[in-house]
């Protein structure tokens, strides 16, 4: 168990390395080695989705992956959403504006899953949103305001894209 | 130490309503102060906290539901590199005092006097030393260099158990000859009470019809998304103890720690960091075990449970059986209710009668019933302890009562909404005396409300008449649509007290410290709104700090829909006192009478002479101690005030819910198409936050109605250890929720606040069950148990079909059936 491996990843645009046991999960690597505690562990068996991060642009459950499997990959976590100056990403902004979070524990997973959805479907229907987010559990909100937040984020981001093209 | 809020102090502490300033920020849909941090991954939850030199703990739990520890061998575990220590129950003997039930703090002497419940105290060992009573009971703890190593070590510990007979059903546990869990209690009854109003037997005798039935509510687990955890560090030199834990009640944890570890109260600091939900609250073995271990080892120790531990032990709730007799007349009027109910308390009844009496106190619901008799029993079985989970007795008893109203409607041939309306307490009967005390001992008197108007508002919202047409059309197409209603009462704002300290710093910034402790409810925002109005600043000027015993000497915590009411009132009153003090000091500074001053947006001005003003920061500087202080003679320095609000009793919120469902007769699958609520939680502090509370409650209630259940097999083994077996509602099952409000401000507190934390979770089991029955009305399927999983509903449908083919319509009388008195 004690043999250690070096894992190097690009996280939120920054190259980071750490030394881990081969059995270390990606979530524990992010949290304990890299200090990125915004990625949360809710079930550690791949159902709740709180630990969702983007790996090369696709959502993964970081509790179900080993850190060594992510070696050489590019990762995006909740810490990488806001702009340099701290301005919230439209998805973060929309979750706050629509009261799409309460305790905030599941929120990073929802934000990352939403980011993936909106990169694939910039104008999702409510049904698409509900289907895409059905792999993330929230006990506080009843999802009602989360769905509204995603619709709002989509609208803002479409506006941003249109503005940048104009 | 005596806490504020003893029975004697109660009556004297009413707050004069005329001193309340009008609402400006209260009632506004302000964005939450908490959000920016939480959406940026900057929340600080227990598992995010790291202390230098910290070690990691893992807890070994009993795999047997009832047994005696015959042998224990940790030698292999201790030999593992990186393992510091293993502690067993024997290592704690004489060092850690017993953990007796948390409920003892909540039973008032007045209540004991009036109701005279039988409550048999029994301590739960922090680690079992001899006997184990449920699967998951802590048996040993390992401390190691990492959590991975600690869990490796758990697998190397050998424990031999001598297995003992098991009982998992509360009715079987009451039968003669049943295995007794705790020999010194004599039997498995941990608590028992009877409470009544009116002459139930006489009313039942007189009633033209009597319905007898049985209702069951399955065991639900609270499932905060954040697993529970504890981090403790003990100062080597002073022995002072600092404990971080995911508890909504840090002051209570401190009290227990002081008693159990023998440390003076003020040398213990308990901090609750950001919490990822709660939905059931209290104190746990690990809250004492980890601090004990940290002291023994002289190093910081952190423990965080995993989800399978959470599903095993972290706050199971519900698990009740109600046996009822209901007398009613031809007009659908309910004349008498007799309910004998069992709470399956699991192996340790840690909350005395909190849940069972809460069920009794809410049984009457919104209905005017001439006579009620409620008998509650907390029964011990070899399952994890049951505790208050969001709703805490209300969803169970509301499921029973609202099903009864529907059954009475059906038996009398009256429309279910009309039958409901006929039984409601009418506005002219207010203030309505329920005839029994609440669990604080004060007789229940319903707060200002208009139940018929609430029902009408909901019927308009759902468009009841239009739905009946839609339903009839759907039936012709072979689709089964149904609508169901539920109404409820929510005693909220439970005491005995909550306090707030409001302080202005020399920059004019305001900080509120309170003993309430949010775990997602947004109190940092709502209390800032209350403070801003009463002090004369804006919410941006206010920071709310909570969850730390060093902030305020006494605190109760956040649970039981209490914090908006109790901490809200305490904050408002303390802010008003700060305002008065600020005006008195400003009068000194400006050399005018304080009655000529006004304080708005953080500035004190002379009325009519706006150029003469001082900022709140100027006033705070003048209030600082020292030679430059400009305080009026005799006034203590520091621009601050403290107030402990002692509610005379609870406020009574209420609500009515409607569910529209579609049932697939072939699969038994139920889809909730629409869910609508009208609630009355008095003066709302922030309607958006109230709506969020309702939505979340409804989803939890929907889980209880349809999917969620902690299941044990007959041998006492839990079968629902993962989220593949225990099914929480997702976006796919939870429908859009329409929330509307009726606002009847409370008369109990000066700001008119009623609680809203639990109501959302109370209505869904009954509303959804009634909707399923309505959808399947042609088959006369009856539902007397939740959750209603597809396989169970399919069984009921099949039985109903067989029954109706056979005898023309009696159907599946799972609930025992109804009938006229012979």
Structural notes for this entry:
The complex is a heterodimer of chains A (166) and B (822). Chain A contains five helices and five strands, in the order ββαβββαααα. Chain A is of the alpha+beta class and 166 residues long. Chain A folds into two domains: 5-80, Beta-grasp domain (Ubiquitin-like (UB roll)); 90-165, [2Fe-2S]-binding domain (DNA polymerase, domain 1). In chain A, strand 3 (52-55) and strand 4 (58-61) form a beta hairpin. Among the domains of chain B are: 7-30 and 495-645, 2-Layer Sandwich (Aldehyde Oxidoreductase, domain 4), CATH 3.30.365.10; 415-491 and 650-820, Aldehyde oxidase/xanthine dehydrogenase, molybdopterin binding domain (Aldehyde Oxidoreductase, domain 4), CATH 3.30.365.10. Chain B is 29% helix and 25% strand. Chain B has 23 helices and 31 strands. In chain B, the strands form seven sheets. In chain B, strands 4, 8, 9, 14, 15, 16, 30 and 31 form an eight-stranded mixed beta sheet that branches. A seven-stranded mixed beta sheet of chain B has the order 3-6-1-13-10-11-12. Chain B has a four-stranded mixed beta sheet with strand order 19-27-28-29, with helices on both faces. The termini of chain B are far apart. Residues 1-14 and 806-822 of chain B have low confidence and may be disordered. Classes of the chains: A alpha+beta (166), B alpha+beta (822). The interface between A and B is large, with 57 and 57 residues.
What is this structure's SSE topology?
The complex is a heterodimer of chains A (166) and B (822).
Chain A: E1 5-11, E2 14-20, H1 26-33, E3 52-55, E4 58-61, E5 74-76, H2 90-97, H3 107-120, H4 126-132, H5 144-165
Parallel strand pairs in A: 1-5
Antiparallel strand pairs in A: 1-2, 3-4, 3-5
Chain B: H1 7-10, H2 35-38, E1 55-61, E2 67-73, H3 75-79, E3 83-88, H4 89-92, H5 109-115, E4 118-119, E5 131-132, E6 138-144, H6 147-156, E7 158-163, H7 170-174, E8 189-197, H8 200-206, E9 209-221, E10 229-234, E11 241-245, H9 250-261, E12 268-271, H10 286-297, E13 301-304, H11 307-313, E14 316-328, E15 334-346, H12 354-362, E16 371-380, H13 394-412, H14 416-423, E17 433-437, E18 443-445, H15 451-462, H16 464-476, E19 480-492, E20 498-504, E21 510-514, H17 523-535, E22 542-546, H18 563-590, E23 597-600, E24 603-606, E25 609-615, H19 616-623, E26 640-645, E27 651-663, E28 670-680, H20 687-706, E29 737-741, H21 759-762, H22 764-775, E30 785-786, H23 790-807, E31 818-820
Parallel strand pairs in B: 1-13, 9-30, 11-12, 15-16, 21-22, 28-29
Antiparallel strand pairs in B: 1-6, 2-5, 2-7, 3-6, 4-8, 8-16, 9-14, 9-31, 10-11, 10-13, 14-15, 17-18, 19-27, 20-21, 20-26, 23-24, 24-25, 27-28
């Amino acid at each position: 168990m004690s043999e250690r491996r070096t894992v190097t990843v690009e996280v939120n645009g920054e190259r980071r390395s750490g030394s881990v046991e081969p059995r270390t999960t990606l979530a524990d690597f992010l949290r304990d080695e890299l200090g990125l505690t915004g990625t949360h562990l809710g079930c550690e068996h791949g159902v709740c989705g709180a630990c969702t991060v983007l790996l090369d642009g696709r959502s993964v459950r970081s509790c179900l992956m080993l850190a060594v499997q992510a070696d050489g990959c590019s990762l995006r976590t909740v810490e990488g959403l806001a702009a340099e100056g701290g301005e919230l990403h439209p998805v973060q902004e929309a979750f706050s504006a629509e009261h799409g979070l309460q305790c905030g524990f599941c929120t990073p997973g929802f934000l990352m899953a939403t980011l993936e959805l909106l990169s694939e479907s910039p104008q999702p229907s409510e049904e698409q949103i509900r289907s895409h987010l059905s792999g993330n559990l929230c006990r506080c909100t009843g999802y009602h305001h989360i769905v509204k937040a995603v619709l709002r984020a989509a609208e803002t981001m479409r506006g941003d894209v249109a503005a940048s093209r104009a | 130490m005596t806490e504020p809020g003893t029975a004697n102090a109660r009556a004297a502490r009413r707050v004069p309503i005329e001193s309340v300033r009008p609402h400006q920020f209260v009632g506004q849909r302000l964005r939450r102060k908490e959000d920016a941090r939480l959406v940026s991954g900057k929340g600080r939850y227990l598992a995010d906290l790291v202390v230098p030199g910290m070690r990691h703990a893992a807890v070994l739990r009993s795999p047997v539901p009832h047994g005696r520890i015959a042998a224990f061998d940790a030698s292999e575990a201790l030999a593992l590199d990186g393992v510091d220590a293993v502690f067993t129950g024997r290592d704690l003997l004489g060092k850690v005092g017993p953990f007796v039930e948390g409920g003892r703090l909540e039973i008032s002497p007045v209540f004991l006097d009036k109701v005279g419940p039988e409550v048999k105290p029994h301590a739960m060992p922090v680690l079992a030393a001899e006997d184990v009573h449920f699967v998951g009971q802590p048996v040993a703890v390992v401390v190691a260099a990492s959590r991975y190593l600690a869990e490796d070590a758990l697998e190397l510990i050998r424990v031999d158990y001598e297995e003992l007979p098991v009982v998992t059903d509360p009715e079987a546990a009451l039968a003669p000859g049943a295995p007794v869990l705790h020999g010194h209690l004599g039997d498995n009854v941990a608590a028992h009470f009877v409470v009544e109003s009116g002459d139930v037997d006489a009313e039942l005798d007189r009633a033209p019809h009597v319905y007898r039935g049985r209702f069951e509510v399955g065991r639900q687990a609270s499932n905060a998304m954040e697993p529970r955890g504890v981090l403790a560090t003990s100062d080597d030199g002073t022995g002072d103890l600092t404990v971080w834990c995911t508890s909504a009640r840090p002051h209570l944890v401190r009290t227990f720690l002081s008693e159990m570890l023998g440390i003076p109260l003020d040398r213990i600091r308990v901090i609750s960091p950001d919490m990822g939900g709660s939905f059931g609250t209290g104190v746990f073995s690990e809250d004492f075990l980890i601090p004990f271990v940290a002291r023994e080892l002289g190093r910081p120790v952190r423990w965080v449970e995993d989800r399978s531990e959470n599903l095993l032990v972290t706050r199971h709730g519900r698990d009740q059986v109600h046996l009822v007799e209901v007398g009613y007349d031809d007009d659908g009027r309910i004349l008498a209710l007799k309910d004998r109910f069992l709470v399956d308390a699991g192996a340790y009844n840690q909350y005395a009668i909190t849940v069972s009496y809460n069920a009794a106190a809410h049984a009457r619901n919104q209905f005017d019933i001439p006579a009620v008799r409620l008998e509650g029993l907390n029964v011990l079985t070899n399952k994890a302890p049951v505790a208050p989970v969001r709703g805490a007795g209300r969803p169970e008893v509301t499921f029973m009562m609202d099903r009864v109203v529907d059954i009475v409607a059906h038996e009398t041939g009256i429309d279910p909404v009309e039958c409901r309306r006929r039984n409601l307490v009418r506005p002219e009967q207010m203030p309505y005396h329920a005839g029994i005390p609440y669990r604080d001992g004060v007789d229940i008197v319903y707060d200002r409300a208009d139940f018929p108007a609430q029902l009408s508002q909901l019927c308009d919202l759902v468009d009841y008449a239009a739905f009946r047409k839609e339903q009839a059309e759907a039936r012709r197409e072979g689709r089964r649509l149904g609508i169901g209603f539920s109404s409820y009462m929510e005693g909220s704002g439970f005491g005995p007290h909550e306090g707030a300290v409001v302080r202005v710093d020399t920059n004019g910034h305001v900080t509120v410290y309170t003993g309430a402790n949010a775990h997602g409810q947004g109190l940092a925002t709502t209390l800032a709104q209350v403070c801003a109005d009463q002090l004369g600043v804006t919410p941006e000027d206010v920071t709310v700090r909570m969850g730390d015993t060093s902030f305020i000497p006494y605190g109760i915590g956040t649970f039981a829909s209490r914090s908006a009411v109790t901490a809200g009132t305490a904050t408002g009153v303390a802010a008003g006192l700060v305002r008065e003090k600020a005006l008195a000091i400003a009068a000194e500074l400006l050399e005018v009478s304080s009655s000529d001053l006004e304080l708005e947006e953080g500035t004190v001005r002379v009325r009519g002479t706006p150029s003469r003003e001082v900022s709140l920061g100027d006033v705070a500087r003048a209030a600082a101690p020292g030679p430059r202080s400009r305080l009026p003679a005799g006034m203590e320095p520091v621009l601050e005030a403290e107030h402990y609000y002692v509610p005379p009793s609870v406020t009574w919120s209420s609500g009515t819910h409607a569910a529209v469902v579609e049932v697939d007769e072939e699969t038994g699958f139920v889809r909730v198409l629409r869910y609508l609520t009208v609630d009355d939680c008095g003066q709302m502090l922030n309607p958006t936050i109230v709506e969020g509370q309702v939505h979340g409650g409804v989803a939890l209630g929907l889980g209880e109605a349809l999917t969620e259940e902690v299941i044990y097999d007959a041998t006492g083994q839990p079968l629902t250890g993962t989220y593949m077996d225990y099914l929480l509602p997702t976006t796919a099952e939870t429908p859009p929720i329409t929330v509307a409000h009726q606002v009847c401000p409370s008369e109990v507190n000066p700001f008119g606040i009623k609680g809203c934390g639990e109501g959302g979770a109370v209505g869904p089991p009954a509303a959804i069950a009634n909707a399923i029955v309505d959808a399947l009305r042609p088959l006369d399927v009856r539902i007397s148990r939740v959750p209603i999983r597809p396989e169970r509903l399919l069984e009921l449908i099949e039985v109903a079909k067989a029954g109706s083919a056979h005898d023309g319509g009696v159907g599946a009388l799972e609930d025992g059936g109804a009938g006229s008195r012979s």
